[in-house]
Amino acid sequence: EKANSIDRTLYTQESLSNFDDALKAAVSVQNNNDAGVSAVSKAVNTLDSAIADLKYLPADYGKVQAAIHAIPDDLFSICAPETAQAVITARDAVDWTLNITEQSKADAYADAILNAIDKLEYLGADYAEVAAAISKIPVDLSIYTDETVQALAEARDAVDWTKDITKQSVVNSYADAIESAISRLIYKPADYKAVNDALDHVRADLTVYTDETLTGAINAVVRGKNMSEQTLVNSYAEEIEKAIAELIYKPAVYTAVDEALKNIPEDLTIYTVKTVEALKDAQTAVDRNKNITEQ
Question: Which ranges in 163-269 belong to alpha helices (H)?
Fold first, then answer.
């Protein structure tokens, strides 16, 4: 009866084979009416020995192996030391000699490992590249277009500073996004108001002046500059205003005067003193320093 109650699913095939041989021999003796007491006793002892020698199958450590496989390879480099050690302690506590009747204990080892993994505290991600990218953001963003500044602000504000080291690639992508937004900043057009005001001060007729500096200053103006070149644009206006201030009128043309002087008779003795003196006064009154505006 004891032999027939054996759960064959618990034992190794080899030990079951020995048991089956002993059981078969015992049944044979039992069915032999001529078998003596010694034969029966021997068969019973052999069967009892085979039952005692039955070997349990080893416990199934599949769950334990899976739990161990779930342990991060770089455990101590990415996790807080105390929580990492707890995982190792749970792993090292496994008794690999359990048999199938102790399966629940084997499964408990797997649970303990997984529980320790769940309690791992990961180190914080490295935000050095993000901080470096943010440090490259220009101090004065007013010189860039609103659209590109907004894109940069969105990239900067998208940074989640709570990521752990397992999300390092995400953190690195924050830095990449900020760097990209910086590279795409577009300058606003330069302000040419001062230049336009200076040009408004230029008189329509420049032919009355001797200095060509003003024309050069006007021709030096380059349109289409951006805000990063505002200082240069302002210098255009300064040069124009300076050139205007330094304009010099051309001298008056004295051709008519010279022609009139040529017409003075060589012999003035034949004229009355009064008219000669009037002529000489007219000659003396000629001012050769007049400019073209006094023509």
Answer: 168-183, 193-200, 213-219, 230-245, 255-262
